[in-house]
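Q: Structure tokens for this one, please.
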Amino acid sequence: MNDVLAALVLGVIQGLTEFLPVSSTAHLTLVPWLLGWDSPLLNSLTFDVALHMGTLLATLIYFAREWVLLARGGVSSIVTRTLNGDPWKRLAWLVVLATIPAALAGLFLESAIETAFRSPWLVGVALIVMGLALAWAEKVGTKRVTMQSMSAFEAMAMGIGQAIAVVPGVSRSGGSMTMGLLAGLSRESAARFSFIMAAPIIAGASAKRFKDVLAAGAGDQTLQTAERVGPTGYVLATDISANILAFAAQNARRAGHRNIETKVLDGENLDVPEDAFDAVISRVGLIYFPDQQKALAGMKRALKPGGRVAAIVYSTAENNKFFSIPVSVIRRRANLPPPLPGQPGPFSLGGPGVLEETFRKAGFRDVQSRTVPAPVRMQTAAECVRFEKESFGALHQMLAGLDDAGREAAWREIEQELRAFEAPGGFEGPCEMIVGVGTK
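A: Here is the predicted structure, written as tokens:
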């Protein structure tokens, strides 16, 4: 379906379901899944935030009178230091009290819960359970308490109900209204207070989606980063290859991540907003930039003050024979000169203190590094050679000066030398990485 039309349909669904005791998030998950819509736009963080901001605006407009009275009552209670005389004074603080459970749940639990309960099937089960709970609350509730007469007990009960909505498929209004009815509120009072107390949470959730932003490359680290920041975080995956990014976006959608966006960018010319990211990750990419300082300057520009850059590089050739042996064989057979000092390459930042000094030269502070053994384990040396043929573009560039027969002879020699790392348990090629971190 056309993205614009699909967005319009999902906007209508959000508008209808947000103000009914059914989960809007669940319907936004289930409808594209059922209809087979698979669009980067519909799965993007920007679209998700736009939907929730629309909900917030509608809530504020419809309850504008109540919010004016609540604001006036809250300020008056602070000035007069009393809750007597005006029921809106007490209601203002009850709204604050009711938002605390959901705020705590969103801060500490939302990422883990949404990751664990992302399946559309589980979302559907949660919808059914929530509907049954609401029907039961409607049947057993006394419905005697009004919004004007409600106490801290009813407000906290509705706050807990709203907090349960961190579970995908549980409606924010449905959870709070269910608890309100069980606490004795009338249907109208439970509904009105539920919508009023939802506004701060919707605003906070939308704002939080712009927090904890990370930029990463297009490999597995993109999915791992998305898991780490959770559904309210944001990951921008960049690469110079549009095909690689298309593959990364497809993997992100398959994994259920809506917080990943992709953009074709040259690592030495990062066309992103200044001071926009909390962290920048470069996995085995910095070593190949012709101008590493220019690349780091772009990363630093993109970081917020206090943001951190992390880069993973190979250590020395001696400790990375799974890679250095192919490089050495090809260099000899193709009569290539040794790399010049400072020239980019797989081991250009692997010497003792080189990565740290490169970070400091770029203006980063609190620079730290850690060496991590990362042996390449496969069934055979032949499998490792197939992996390097498919994945290591640098080796193919080095082989460009050889004819087909020369290239095949080089790969045969590489496999022969790598067999030294075969054992009864399989192939284990020596590999050692350095992880460096610096702060803007």
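A few notes: The chain has two domains: 3-208, 266-439. The longest strand covers residues 303-314.
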